Amino acid sequence: MKKVLVVGGAGYVGCILIEELLAKGYSVKVLDRLFFGQDPAKGFLDRVELVVEDMREFNESHLDDCSAVINIGGLSNDPTAEFNPRANEELNTTASIRVAEVAKRAGIERLIFASTCSIYDRGVGEEVRDVLLDEESDVDPKAAYATSKLAAEGPILSMADDSFAPMAFRKGTIFGFSPRMRYDLVVNAFVKDALSKGKLSVHYGGAMWRPLIDVKDVARAYVMALESDVGLIRGQIFNLTAGNFRISELALRVQRALRDLGVEAELDVDFSYRLVRSYRVSGQKILRTLGFEPRVSVEESVEHMVHEIDRHGYRDFSHPRYYNIEWMKLLEESVDIARTHGYVLTKPDFTDASGLSSEASRVRPELPAR
Ligand SMILES: NC(=O)c1ccc[n+]([C@@H]2O[C@H](COP(=O)([O-])OP(=O)(O)OC[C@H]3O[C@@H](n4cnc5c(N)ncnc54)[C@H](O)[C@@H]3O)[C@@H](O)[C@H]2O)c1
């Protein structure tokens, strides 16, 4: 059975991707810091090998028996990248390049790096440059997140040779339910707004364009890239999108899909202008090369999401865990609080299984200086 290492496999994409890999008969190893806890991954934890480590410490021992690596770890949006630019660069650029270098040295056949379509950002004001962008188009990202992804793409793809086939997916904004739910992604945020406030908040008049794709389609694309002729993916970049939408149109489609489910929500449109990300991309290359076609529409995804939110009890919509930036800020603050005592509310039990107090286990791990 082929074994795949998924770095960052306990996140939003990972929790769907791992199920897809297992269903296709892959043996899976997950390396993840578990920033969002173990709970979202509980559906598959007994079927994978879990390594709770930092991707910055990546080494060959993490790759035993693996034939492929999927790297979806690190910081995954603009606010978190800007909150801690140093960590962003360390994870999204330096560690991601290192993962590829180690994989190549270890004789791994393929590696898929998670990049982003926000690399193409043209801005709402740039109507002249508002054209459909493909993998050959010029890119000049300004924000820290997209810049860090672009800085990793080049070195990773340039490692391609006869025995190593790295590739990158530039993914559009993803939507859909995941057990590690994110309500900070536009479609998911609309659904959350409708269910919690009875209105969809549309910023900047909804004028900006976004390429979008459902998370289950993303997972299928990863599997397709693992199973394709290796010559087709070697050193390649593929955009991953099911289409481009103006945010205003997207809001109307989500509103209609929710109405069909009996959920009424008004549009709450704010017209105050600020420079926001806007770009339209082509998904033709992956269709031509690998025959990949997205299957899940926004409407189908919204219907599935509403059911799954109820089934999982994810109606605590304001909980920080659903918003990467809120959660990261909270984790950083709690490190400061835990630093003094080594715990927050409940004092850890420092006795070992024999009931004796263990000297070694009493030593608190060194916390990094901030
Ligand atoms: N979600 C989207 O819309 C989207 C769009 C384009 C690209 N991407 C990219 O896809 C990938 C996955 O995105 P996601 O939405 O699942 O993000 P996520 O934040 O839900 O998951 C990231 C995972 O990486 C882990 N991680 C973070 N730092 C780590 C470290 N130092 N060591 C080990 N593990 C670490 C986290 O614990 C988490 O499980 C990311 O690289 C992201 O940039 C996502």
Describe the structure.
The chain is α/β, with parallel strands linked by helices and 370 residues long. The chain has one domain (3-323): Rossmann fold, CATH 3.40.50. 38% of the residues lie in helices and 16% in strands. The strands form 4 sheets. It has a 7-stranded parallel sheet with strand order 3-2-1-4-5-7-11, with helices on both faces. A 3-stranded mixed sheet has the order 8-10-12. Strand 1, helix 1 (12-23) and strand 2 form a beta-alpha-beta unit. The longest helix is centred in the N-terminal third of the chain and has 21 residues, at 85-105. It is globular, with a radius of gyration of 21 Å. The protein binds nicotinamide-adenine-dinucleotide. Nicotinamide-adenine-dinucleotide binds at residues 8, 10-14, 32-36, 54-56, 72-74, 76, 91, 114, 116, 171, 173-174, 180, 185, 324.
